Amino acid sequence: MKQMITSDRNLVEESIFRHEEDVRIYLWIRLMSREEAGNEGDFYLEKGQYQASIRELQKSLKYYEGNKKEEYSLSRIQRSIKRLVKNDWIRTEKTALGFIYTVL
């Protein structure tokens, strides 16, 4: 347990997480990824993988600013994913229905 807490604290100290959407996207993918390998719809996903399109991520990551519901733009999500891939937090694989995201 202590090791997990230490690694989670290191997570927030990383320079990659200067953008709030990076943190939200990474945590969403990490929390939604498979705990064990198996079929997910039309895909067989390994442990630590999650399948979604950019638009599905956009819908899942809606948030409130005051009383107004907001969502990240598709381009903002794409830039965030590129930063996460560049810094080896996730890996992506394009499919016909979106992407398979693998937590590294």
Task: Compile the SSE list and pairings.
Layout: H1 2-13, H2 20-32, E1 38-40, E2 43-45, E3 49-52, H3 54-60, E4 63-65, E5 68-70, H4 74-86, E6 90-95, E7 98-103
Antiparallel strand pairs: 1-2, 3-7, 4-5, 6-7
Describe the protein:
The chain is α+β, with helices and mostly antiparallel strands. The protein is 43% helix and 27% strand. The protein has one domain. The chain contains four helices and seven strands, in the order H-H-E-E-E-H-E-E-H-E-E. The strands form three sheets. Strands 3-7-6 form a three-stranded antiparallel beta sheet. A two-stranded antiparallel sheet has the order 1-2. The longest helix has 13 residues, at 20-32.
Give helix % range: 40-55%
Outline type: globular
> Class by helix and strand content?
alpha+beta
Number of helices: 4
Q: In angstroms, what is the radius of gyration?
A: 14 Å
- How many independent structural domains? 1
Strand content: 25-35%
Specify the biggest β-sheet. 3 strands, antiparallel
Instruction: Give the total of beta strands.
Output: 7
Question: Which strand order spans the largest sheet, edge to edge or round the barrel?
Answer: 3-7-6
- Please mark out the parts with pLDDT under 50 across 5 or more consecutive residues, or reply none: 1-5
Succession of helices and strands? HHEEEHEEHEE
Mean pLDDT: 87
N→C terminal distance: 19 Å
